[in-house]
Fold this sequence. Notes:
Oligomer: single chain
Structural class: alpha/beta
Strand content: 25-35%
Number of helices: 24
Largest sheet: 9 strands, antiparallel
Radius of gyration: 35 Å
Amino acid sequence: MKKTVLLLIFSFLLPKTYAQEYFPNNEGVPNKTMNYTAFTNAKIYVTPTQVIEKGTLLIQNGKVIATGTKIDIPKNCTTINLEGRSIYPSFIDIYTSFGIEKPKGISRTERNPLYDTKRTGYYWNESIRSETNGYESFNYDQAKAEDLLKAGFGVVGTHVPDGIARGTGTLIALNNFDKSSQLLSYKISNHFGFTKSVTTNQAYPSSLMGMMALLRQMYHDLDWYKKGNATNKDLSLEALTNNEKLVQIFASEDKLNSLRASKIAKEFGLNYILKGNGNEFERIEEIKKTNSKFIIPINFPVAYDVSDPNQADQMELKDLRFWNQAPTNLKVLSDNGIIFALTTDKLKKIEDFRPNLLKAIKYGFDKTKALEALTTVPAAILGKSNEIGTLKTGSLANFVITSGEIFDEKTTLYENWVQGNKFVVNDITTKDIRGNYDLTINNEKYKWKIDGEIAAPKSEITTLDSKKIKSKLTLSNNWVSTVIKPNDSTKTSFTRLIGYIENVQNLSGKAVLFNGTEVNWSAVQTAPFIKAMDSAKVEKNNRIMPITFPNVAYGNLKKLETQTILFKNATVWTNEKEGILEQTDVLVKNGKIAAIGKNISDASATVVDAKGKHLTSGIVDEHSHIAISNGVNEGGHNSSAEVTIQDVVNSEDINIYRDLAGGVTTSQLLHGSANPIGGRSAIVKWKWGASADEMLYKNQPGFIKFALGENVKQANWGITNPTRFPQTRMGVEQVFIDYFQRAKEYDLAWKKYNSSSKKGKEKAPRVDLELQTLAEILNKERFISCHSYVQSEILMLMNVAEKFDFRVNTFTHILEGYKVADKMKEHGVGASTFSDWWAYKFEVNDAIPFNGPIMHNAGIVVAYNSDDAEMSRRLNQEAAKAVKYGNVSEEDAWKFVTLNPAKLLHIDDKVGSIKVGKDADIVLWSTNPLSIYAKVEKTLIEGIVYYDNKKDEENRVAIAKERNELIGQLLQEKNKGMITQEPKKTEKVEYHCDTMEE
Length: 998
């Protein structure tokens, strides 16, 4: 097998002209040289921190033989004097798709969802493509190689960027002259990412949480497979096993996704190198805690053209900020001790790499760290420090020759040597003829100004009376050629000058006049070239806007801290037996409610005069879909119990802040209703500015979303030929019965294995995250929140639950609950419903606004939820509708959005009421919270003020001021002639139960 693979590699990499020494040569006489090349008198950067002045670099056969100041130069040696020049190791980019054709997506005729794999002998999911090898589809791209060489790169890692498990990458030397040496390592890295393969129409996974669950299941399956438990061969798992010791690179492509990938790595004892996207500075503390190495792109956003105020108003502050702050990312990473390599990935043009890097340096990124990120760091990440990234003895002779310090704007890159082969970027022998001259052509006198770049000078000729004459100058191999055009555009005759440059002080040569007469010309330099100061370059850097937490509008300038606060003389809605207390004090201390009563004092407390105001516990939203990243539904299977919303909490969603402004402190983020058995939920506290993990309710009880009705049977999906089971309400019941029976058998198998005296000696059952979750329901360790409408299905699920000896915890929506309230009470299930939604689709035609009060009067724990980003901001008004439609008391109505949902979520021991010892999750209202005129003045979570209406007013002024300054900076960029892009409005998708990612 190995011989076959190696022959395959060499067959596409080795044309006959560049055969290895043991290959026959039938095209000429073999010519092997053992000569040395010595580069003398150069400033040599052996490593970024080891520099030799006036040193010598000696190479032979593509490798470094020696570097130093006292090198014995062999007789059979070509010596190149590089006095005044510098030598650096060539750059390394370990994350590219160089030479690999972009995978072709499926055709439109194949886009109906596929639920099972079409492949045989591979993993069951077609986005797991670990058997893919980059070298098998590699084809050296000479043109792209030249672009990379011009940018200073000598080695690249390349792979197929497709799928979740993407297979191996290969390491390539950018050697345009000896193709037999291009392949440095045919398997150097193993790649992963959070994107489905474009080559498949397999429905699963359809969400980010599904991708994370799939990765977890893959690693569990890998462990099970390696232990010999499987009866079949799986080429994908075989490849994962064989490639375990390679460098594992994960394309997270976002700061939050980097944290998510790191979480998976920690679970399975892996060490991912994370490919970021340039926004790491926004969450640097969490990024630092991953202890990961990174690969960072520098595709800074182009300035926006905000000259049209209407278009400028469309842009979000976070996008304006990112343009301003992005160039600081490398400095922030470096200052925080994070090890990272740089990549050209995501750049529209490779030639943009150097300007962007110089911009990052201009904004404080250390030059030595920059060189390390392009040489020693990527080499170390790949375990190739002895071969590439330095000019130490034995390393490949990969180096660039420059006119000076490599990260100086004025420096010219002359040559890029790869494996001892020279690639010319700019001719090092080109003489600098720039300056001012007195030009004489056949006794006619002129003034001649030559400026521009050394290798591409520009000509400006004027008569002695200052009239400009059109001219164009070209320079090649130290021959200067100038065409002088007549000012009369109707004439087609020209005067042509040509001459060889021997002395830049005195230029001379032959001239052919417009009439064909040949004469002499000469030019005597009167002044040397002085580069004009570009006003755009000497201007100060833009003022960098401060980072907030999160780094969006209304973010906090610093992490918030708990406070000791004493609310005086408030009307307190306790939700306890004490009821509503007038003129009462509440002391908040150490994140808890410390005291409730009259005349409370605390010298350390900030006193809030709450006279005439109302103090309540924070609103608890039992059913929300805000703050979820990349998909609320994993609808690729009829059961997705293995996925969890906890993986994809988006801590930067502005809806969090809006919820706080509406008094919401806790929410249950639920999976959608695309399938009968959905994913696990996340109970969160809206700690604006904290990380996603910090928002998760500590030691939260386990919940999972189930669903009934039209959504799960795909009646409203718009698919022309739906094939996923179930398609009927009868089928939905069978899905539940089948999965619970399988989960029961799965649980028994594990219990039997774990209690066996032969445990560890016999084959273990396969870890199945989906059945494991359902077994938790059977073992009463996880609770069900079920999306429901029609009474028949409500009764059906309760019957299924009783058959398997558990109880449904909550029916959510439950718009026909009033019809079966007695059966629900008997079963022991709670209800989380809408206040007055009805008739928005066929299966809710029988909904009535009295539904909640009727169930409440039947003794059921009833809550009102939002299921909507806009409604969650006014749940206090939703609660008031229970008073209007059902004559529910104000106290009980208020419990519909506070204590009752807390009870349904089994967290009422900590939240939902104002009681000494409970979490200080409280809200101060301007008036009765059930009033449409009530406004939130303060929202506290665990004693921290996350919303303050006065602070909010200050924020609005500050945001307007910041936007104005940023727009001013962008207008300056346009006025300086910089490239701009059209403003883009960020279209935000607000998730609902039935939202599916495209």
